[in-house]
Amino acid sequence: MRISSFGSQHLDWADPKNPSEITPPIREAITVEECIYLATMGGAYQARMEDKLGSLEVGKYADLVILDRNIFEIDPQELSEVKVLGTVMDGNFTHRDGI
C-alpha cells in the first residue's frame, strides 16, 4: 500500500488496486475474524442476550447466513463480492438462492 498525505497531521492508506480510493489508516482496521465476532458474540453481549444469541449452541436461536465461499480464506478486498446463498432465522429459511 502507498501512503497519501492530506494535511500536515493526517495520513490515509491508498488501495494499490484502486489508488483513488482511500481506506482508513491501518491502526483503525479490524480483521475479518474480529468483524464476525463483533457482529455475533459482541452484539449478543451488548444486548445482554448471550444466553439466546451470538453463537450456534443448543437452546439458542439458530440465525445464520450461508455464503458462497469461506470469508476467512479470501482477500478482505473481495468481501463485497461474496454472495448470500441463504439466511436462516429461528431455524427456518427466510431466503434461498439456489440451495
List the SSEs and their pairings.
Elements: E1 2-5, E2 11-15, E3 18-23, H1 32-46, E4 64-67, E5 84-89, E6 92-96
Antiparallel strand pairs: 1-2, 2-3, 4-5, 5-6
Q: How would you concisely characterize the structure shown here?
A:
This protein has one helix at 32-46, and strands at residues 2-5, 11-15, 18-23, 64-67, 84-89, 92-96.
What does this entry look like structurally?
This protein has 99 residues and is of the alpha+beta class. It is 15% helix and 30% strand. A 3-stranded antiparallel β-sheet has the order 1-2-3, with no helix packed on it. A 3-stranded antiparallel β-sheet has the order 4-5-6, with no helix packed on it. Strand 2 (11-15) and strand 3 form a beta hairpin. It is flat, with a radius of gyration of 18 Å.
Number of DSSP E strands: 6
- Side by side, the strands of the main sheet go 1-2-3
- The SSE order reads EEEHEEE
Poorly predicted segments: 1-11
Radius of gyration: 18 Å
Count up the helices.
1
Instruction: State the secondary-structure class.
Output: alpha+beta
Main beta sheet, described? 3 strands, antiparallel
Number of domains: 3
Distance between the termini: 38 Å
How would you state the average pLDDT, rounded? 81
Proportion of residues in helical segments: 10-25%
Shape: flat
Strand content: 25-35%
